[in-house]
Hints:
alpha+beta
Amino acid sequence: MGFLRGIDGFRSIPLDLSEGTTQGGFLTILAAVLCLALFGCELSAFLTVTTRTRIVMDSNQDKLLKINFDISLNDMDCDHVTVGVWDSFGSDRLNITRNIQKQKLDHQGNDAGHPYTDDELLELEAREETYSEQQKEEFDADWTSSSDSFKHDSFDDVIDSHDLTMILFYADWCPPCRRFKPTWNEFENEVNKDKGYIGITDADGVQLGGQVRVLKINCVEFQSACLEESIDSYPNVRLYRRSIGKSKRFSQYEGERTLAGLLAFLKSEAKKRHLHVGAKHHNVNTEGCRIRGYVEVTRVPGTLHIESKSSETKMMSAAFTNTSHVVNHLSFGDESPMLTSKDLGIPDEYRENIAPLDGKAFVVDRFHQAPHHYIKVVSTTFANLANIRSYQITHQHRVANIPKHTIPQAKFSYDLAPVEVIVTEERVKKWYSFFTSALAIVGGAYTVMGLTSGACNMASRAFKDKVGKLG
């Protein structure tokens, strides 16, 4: 015991040799409060768990990847909805039915759905088409010479850019063509004047004006265009109108080759057409379709696509299919409850990226358009949760313009990142760091307060000496 007293580094001072002061009591309380506050901060930091990530090359050796989907198509009949997958290996699987369920949906609202008439389709399509001034000049020009300032490379665009297009097919060497040409030029100038010919109206009395165009095509210069239109005699006059399919619709002029005869024919044919009926977009089918399930794909970039196709009992104008849809759910990989439960430790920022498209709507309001999704898929492993694996998703999308005679598809293009993210959870402070900090807080607080007390005592003595009150 004597040895221990000899090496005592914390010798105490007897109470009768020490003096308590109000100032010392105040500093003691302040030190205790400071210790408790700093200790609380350190304890909070010790109990805090942070997420750390590291990136490695993807170690997943699975050959297949599961795509889970639940998609509602607002205006597509279940009898015609098909699902397909294409991948970069060249595999193209169409009309997949395995592991897929379809459920019919009712429309919301009063319109139960009805097919578009040809007149509605033509009007809506023409209304949505826009042309630059250069294109307008191109489509309004005569095809008389291949060496003029125009390209003359699309006869279909010439027809589609006008409500009605009356065309003279001729050949320079043809004597009847030469005799008829002055009359045709007079007719052309009359109809193609600045604001169009006033007297041409459709079946609803709407003035067509500049939407009617009169042209001529030199079949010597543009032989391929005339052959494609099966022109077998000259002069040959046809009145073309916009068409829905690839085949162009026209009326052959067989009347007298006079200005009055040409004008009468043009007016008569225009009266037969409902060209401007105020058509609006509407539902076509009496029901929608909810399609859900999963497909297994090779772990390479690819595209999941949904489209409408004709059945054995019903043919469809598939080019006008409405592919608007709501993504109820879309994810990749096995759907473990641990990945979606908020009580099992998956950080919120990772859980939100497992299915970020859920509940989002993607709507198109024009023909020949379809939503196209671009998805980057990143394999993610949670080391603290028995190495459970999930797939994080980043998503971009756009409304794609589709060629007129191509079936629109709702596309989900996916690409797998070649790396894997390893997620671990760690405490911000180790236990030994916590205890070291706790001891430093206690010692530091009382040391600072002791120094403060000493400084205050010295200042007090100095002040008393100066005023002569020290005993």
